[in-house]
Amino acid sequence: MVSKNCIFCKIARGEIPGDMVYEDDDCVAFRDINPQAPTHVLVIPRKHIEGLAETEPEDQELLGKLVAVAARVAEQEDLVESGYRVVINWGEDAGMAVPHLHLHVLGGRKMSWPPG
User: Domain 7-107, what architecture?
Assistant: First the structure.
């Protein structure tokens, strides 16, 4: 399923340009236009899923692949040695701006805890 009006679906389809760092049949990864760290890449499924709360049992394999792609992106971006963070937000209070499931891969600077 795709959404005609979802900005991330449009990026995944190539209708809106994105600074792509990874693509396959199931997902894409591109640089965030409002980066919160020196490296900030979003990993999204091509399938439109609004967020974790909207996943179905059949999405389990796709969810695992998204995490694996996040790790691959971190390796491509030379973040493994220094460390990186992978974040999934759900809902307005968590800061989710686009209602399409996405993983943030953040690195290139010291992260603080707690994150919020």
Answer: 2-Layer Sandwich (3.30)
